[in-house]
Amino acid sequence: MQLPEVTRRTVLGAGTAALALPTLAACQKSNLPGSDPDAERTLVVGASDEPQTMDLTANAQAAIPQVLLYNVYETMVRIDSEGKLRPLLATAWTISEDRKTYRFTLNEHAKFASGTKLEADAVVKSLELFRKEGVGNKAQAAKMSVIESVKAEDPRTVVITLKRPSMLWLYDLAGTGGVVIDPAGMSTLAERPMGSGPFVFDSHQRGSSVTLKRNSEYWGTPTRIDEVTFRYFTDANAMNGAMLAGDLDIISDLTAPESLDQFTDTSRFTVIEGTTNGEVVLGMNHKNAALGKKQVRQAICHAIDRQALVDSVWGGKGTMIGSMVPPSDPWYEDLSKTYPFDPAKARELLKEAGHATGLKLNFRVPALPYGPGVGKFVASQLKDVGIDVRVEDIDFNTWINEVFVGGKYDLTVVAHVEPRDIVSWTNKDYYWHYDNPEFNRLIAEADSSDEATGIEKMKQAARILAEDAAADFLWLFPRLCITKASVQGIPTNSTGVSFDLTGATVRSS
Amino acid sequence: MSRSLREVTLWSGLVLVGMIVLTALVAMVWTPFDPIRVTPERLAPMSSRHWLGTDAYGIDILSQLMSGARTCLLVGMVSVAIAALVGIPLGLVIGIGGDRWWARLLLRISDMLYALPALLLAILLAAALGASTTTAMAAIGIATIPVFVRMTRAGTMQVMTRDYVASARVSGIGWPAIAWQHILPNVAPLLGVQASVSFATAILAEAALSYLGLSTPSTTPTWGRMINEAQRAIYTSPELTVWPALAIGMAVLGFNLLGDGLRDRLDPLLKEVS
Predict the structure, then answer these.
(1) Are B53 and B43 in contact (CB under 8 A)?
(2) Where are the beta strands (DSSP E) in A181-268?
(3) What is the largest CA-CA distance in chain B?
(4) Interface ipTM
């Protein structure tokens, strides 16, 4: 089950700005011109969602791997900023003829921050964590459930056998489900996560921050940053204020894109604008008699001016996608022109479907930063083509229970931020109730094919989704990251959940 | 306070309230632009076409303010009516009951309700019944009941000590008739003042609730919701926050001034002291 991004600000949580003030002396010192090059290099990163625990097997919350993945924990393979698979702890891997057996060769230099050599046994034990009965992070457990067995053939070779061929699984192994955990830290996952990454976990101040320190024993290219602090803000304006005041080095993600104009001074700030995996989907309940008709769904897609919607709701920041695929996936194609803004065409299609007038739909909008704006915009444009939309604002927990789980809605909107979540369209019991055997067949075939064929089939599947107007794919969340001009090496695109600081550097004067 | 100054208070209150009522009435039949239809004219500056400019959705600000006045008055009227219709009879009964155990019990129950903030009640109601204008009106109304109970009771207790009540009692007139003929007319001015002040509080509460998204749906413009939407762009387009804030300020000030002015004019208890 994919959970949409939880960046909601709780209704009454406006007052945490005060938490943001102390503890900055160290970081400012290193940024003073002409300061000692040997001085501590620290980074303070502003973020909006604080981890509930540091145990990434316990909970699917994206805030946990945001801090830990790649920075503290490493995986055998990783995904780079362009969405491609790259070796990390494994130097190479081979795939058997039947595409079910993967043989990974581990890097001989790899070792944990504790000094222990990183060997195949640790990989086996780590993967077992997600395959155990009753693991809390069900999303990752589901992804790893395709594994039949994991074996350590020798200290440097891991053999993983799958129940069925799966091309997508290797991408999943590059994420949270594939982290290699220090066997010494298996019992302290929540308090002291221990991995092999360039940073080690230092402390978690509840309600305020998480601190990482440099791993002086790092087996690869060591980082030049001595200390990283993730500081959490519930109020976007407070976070922007801290950045403007020089208290932060990085804003990991600008939650109010309208405020980008505050950071235009290029001598002080760098704005990193890239893509994410977050598709904002206008969900249509296929069980609704009218929305079950393709023409009605097509009409809705034609009726909404998506670029204008992004301009109004999200400060004009974001990418038009047209299907459930972000540009960083290998099977991306620009499908955003499938249903261009054309109210006349929309009215015509509605007429053909027998809903020229009198179609009433309820639109249940979750209280997320973009929710009410999308509600207002979509209601207005659908009214223009003769659909009467009743907007109902509900809080996010109600949304989860009644819309996401209960399926009680006609229209709704939410961002799906999981990587490769196009596969959730194969589940006809998912809250959209989309059921197209042709689509399901293509996804299944793609998964069991080799990479080249698989990518081609994924493209076909994405096209079917777009053509079917399965939903209106409104826009792709932008990655808007602000750094001080002195900070470099932050990846442009956010292809997974990690806030990857492994390549970050700071100019010291 | 001199008499002329008191008149100024009353009249400035009347003018402000009058302006808002007039705006709301006009908005019922006409606004310069459709207050809910999005247009491509995003963030237009002030001009002869859009007097106060447009917001990020290309919706005319003035039209939204006018339409917001309607919602604000509606919520104010209905919630004050709920509070008065329940609170005044209850206050009369408790006042007449005096020191008897049931009167004291009722008063304590009303005090308990008083301790519950309107906002909390609204969040509870919105969670249970869904956020809507009706839940907002109900929450504000219920939370205002104790104010009317206390005010009516205090007035009643005072009137009860008068000789004419005693003589009416001796001549065998029943309590309901005494309440209706003797007590209510004497406490009415007091309650009128209270209604005006409560109206101001209700407007503020409605603004807070719609700011938090607990009142009207996002397709109905209200002043609180306008502030909420403008907040995201507060550094880049601060004027979007100013207009609805001014409207709320004017309305609250208007009803408070009206209440003050009315009290100076009407309150018989005040007159006795001076």
Answers:
(1) yes
(2) 199-205, 209-214, 227-232, 250-251
(3) 75
(4) 0.84
Place of tokens 């001076």: B274
Q: Which of B42, B213, B231 sits opposite A311 (nearest CB)?
A: B42
- Residues on chain B bordering chain A, Cβ-to-Cβ distance under 8 angstroms: 36-38, 40, 42, 56-58, 123, 127, 130-131, 212-214, 217-219, 225, 228-229, 231-237
Instruction: Report the C-alpha gap between B120 and B123 in whole angstroms.
Output: 5
Q: How far apart are CA A135 and CA A143, in angstroms?
A: 12
Residues with Cβ < 8 Å from A332, sequence gap 6 or more? A325, A326, A462
Q: Any idea what the Cα angle at residue B12 is, between residues B11 and B14, rounded to 5°?
A: 60
Q: What pLDDT is attached to residue B46?
A: 92
* A contacts of B38 (beta carbons < 8 Å): 308, 312, 376-377, 380-381
Looking at every residue in chain B, the average pLDDT score rounds to 89
Q: What Cα–Cα distance (Å) separates residue A508 from each residue in A106, A460, A488, B174, B190?
A: 35, 49, 11, 90, 70
3-state secondary structure of B203: helix
The stretch A450-474 carries a mean pLDDT of 95
Contact A300, A284 (CB under 8 A): yes
What would the pLDDT profile of A219-233 be if each residue is shown by its tens digit?
Answer: 999 999 999 999 999
Cα separation, B19 vs B254, in Å, equals 9
Q: How many whole angstroms separate alpha carbon A431 and alpha carbon A416?
A: 13
Burial (Cβ within 10 Å: 0-12, 13-18, ≥19) of residue A445: middle
Reduced to 3 states (helix: H, G, I; strand: E, B; else coil), residue B131 is coil
Cβ atoms of residues B241 and B249 within 8 Å: no
Summarised one tens digit per residue, pLDDT across range A271-310 is: 999 999 999 999 999 999 999 999 999 999 999 999 999 9
Q: pTM score, two decimals?
A: 0.83
**Is the CB of residue A215 less than 8 Å away from at least one CB of chain B?**
no
Beta carbons of B123 and A11 less than 8 Å apart: yes
Give burial (CB, 10 Å; 0-12/13-18/19+) of B186: middle
**Is a pLDDT exceeding 80 seen at residue A37?**
no
The domain made up of B3-39+48-270 has a fold known as MetI-like fold (1.10.3720)
What angle in degrees, to the nearest 10, is found between the helix axes of B133-160 and B184-211?
150
Q: Is B241 left (phi over 0), alpha (psi -120 to 50) or beta?
A: alpha
Per-residue pLDDT band for B267 (boundaries 50, 70, 90) equals: low
Q: Is residue A73 predicted with pLDDT exceeding 60?
A: yes
State whether residue A447 is helix, strand or coil.
helix
Q: What is the pLDDT of residue A499?
A: 94
pLDDT-derived band at B268, boundaries 50, 70, 90: low
Q: Which of A258, A20, A60 is nearest to A141 (CA)?
A: A60
CB B135 within 8 A of CB A394: no
Cα of B46 to nearest chain A Cα, Å:
18
What pLDDT, on a 0 to 100 scale, did the predictor assign at position A23?
Answer: 33
Q: What pLDDT is recorded for position A1? A: 40
Query: Is residue A18 classed as helix, strand or coil in its secondary structure?
Result: helix
* Residues 6 or more apart in contact with residue A485 via CB below 8 angstroms: A266, A267, A268, A269, A270
Q: With contact defined as beta carbons under 8 Å apart, do A489 and A504 qualify?
A: yes
